[in-house]
Amino acid sequence: ATQVKKICCLGAGYVGGPTCAVIAYKCHDIDVTIVDLNEARIAAWNSDHLPIYEPGLDKIVFERRGKNLSFTTEVEKSVLEADLIFVSVNTPTKKSGLGAGFAADLAYVESATRQIADVAKSSKIVVEKSTVPCRTAESMRTILEANSNENIRFDILSNPEFLAEGTAINDLLYPDRVLIGGLQTPEGIKAQQALVEVYARWVPTDRIITTNLWSSELSKLAANALLAQRISSINALSAICEATGADIDEVSYACGRDSRIGPKFLKASVGFGGSCFQKDILNLVYLSEQLNLPEVAAYWKQVVDLNEYQKKRFVSRVIKTLFNTITNKKIAILGFAFKKDTGDTRESAAITLCKDFIQENAKVRIYDPKVSIEQIFLDLSEPGVIDSAKQLKNRVTIAKSAYEATEDADAMIITTEWDEFKELDYEKIYNQMHKPAFIFDGRLILDAEKLRNIGFRDYYCQLIT
Ligand code: NAD
Ligand code: UDX
């Protein structure tokens, strides 16, 4: 099989950066260059403050950077020299045009593919790392083949990424599986084998799955849809718990002990966030509609609808509990990232909550250990969130600690499950809050009994009355 010696990765984001840094860390004889059009992002990758926060990432980057790992904006040179190219660019949900609100915007994938086609002077293995609709590799192949000749050939692989933010390095070092799809032709299989050999340096071969291209592309959308479906299922059950006095953590534990169900991904919450789940399910919904499968589309769409419902349900619970009005009340928001151990806020439930509270004329005071002030204001001033700059300025403040956020607050809301929120001095918090003091635990991480004993007037441990 072809031996990969130089890898180029187009896209230095949450996926391209960590994934290729780990390849460099595990394969010292492979030269890895990570490229991005965004100069600021590349400058950050080359500095002491990496552009993304991910436990364990610094160590790996600092160890290999300047050796076999580099970050650059020089697309042409990097593509020209590489024998394998990862396309790890963003594929957001389309905001306008055909399929708006559902379909994946493939403009970045296409322009990255065209760049490769324009620049390449030797054969390349091109790997889809981005999450794409099923059969995207077909379009990439058409673009690349229109530019190939007897001396240059392009082989396309699909190698979707399954890392979760906050645990990316561990997920990359010890993956449950690595999936590599390729055309089942002699050349396709040879290319597939070349990438298998890269991963086989540290991943046991029984964890490297090879499939045809389309299965690989679809498996990524399917895996995210199945994971998100579990959360929406448990969140739907949490609504029943609220109405009956059943305890969702107990239900979740009891169900999860069935080895066929399993315990993971059954934690009820204020709703899932992150850049992937919603986007990928909507992508699957669109694909189903395109394939004329409306029942299938409706089935998956419900996973996203339920998630929206869960956020709304949480907000109305807060308002109801605070005597049906939160006008000018102070609400402490603990956590702005979409989950713990990341600074990423994309699709974070906290954004929707803040928006709704501000529409009710509350004052929100936000604290997150890893999200910058600039990022919070950027997210809240996105179109459709808080449109008036004046309202944003008057209604939102950022605190430097959980204690600062809860000073004089009427309610405290846990929106992200950061470990430090479990360790806070809740007596101190209670004493400085406005009475009656309320806590709403949107992540079910606190000990309800203990808080009630401190005096918190009401405590919704699982959104239960
Ligand atoms: P991101 O926005 O963090 O990074 C993408 C980067 O690509 C950006 O920095 C952008 O400037 C760059 N880019 C765009 N066009 C380019 C081009 N032609 N050449 C070079 N750089 C270019 O996105 P991400 O979170 O890393 O996600 C990337 C892909 O991986 C998406 O398809 C996503 O669905 C998928 N994915 C993400 C995760 C995750 O946890 N974030 C997990 C699995 C899969
Ligand atoms: C997800 C997939 O897990 C990963 O395999 C894929 O590659 C990218 O998308 P990510 O979005 O980074 O990863 O984080 P994940 O841990 O899946 O959490 C997503 C959201 O679901 C978070 O908001 C999290 O708090 C929430 N969640 C997760 C729950 O509400 N309950 C759970 O039981 C698990």
Automatic annotation (TrEMBL):
It comes from the Eukaryota. One of its GO terms (cellular component) is nucleus. GO terms for biological process: glycosaminoglycan biosynthetic process; UDP-glucuronate biosynthetic process. NAD(+) binds at residues 11-16, 36, 41, 89-93, 130-131, 165, 276-279, 346. Residues 332-448 form the UDP-glucose/GDP-mannose dehydrogenase C-terminal domain. Keywords: NAD, Oxidoreductase. Belongs to the UDP-glucose/GDP-mannose dehydrogenase family. NCBIfam families: NDP-sugDHase (TIGR03026). This is UDP-glucose 6-dehydrogenase. The lineage of its organism: Eukaryota, Fungi, Fungi incertae sedis, Mucoromycota, Glomeromycotina.
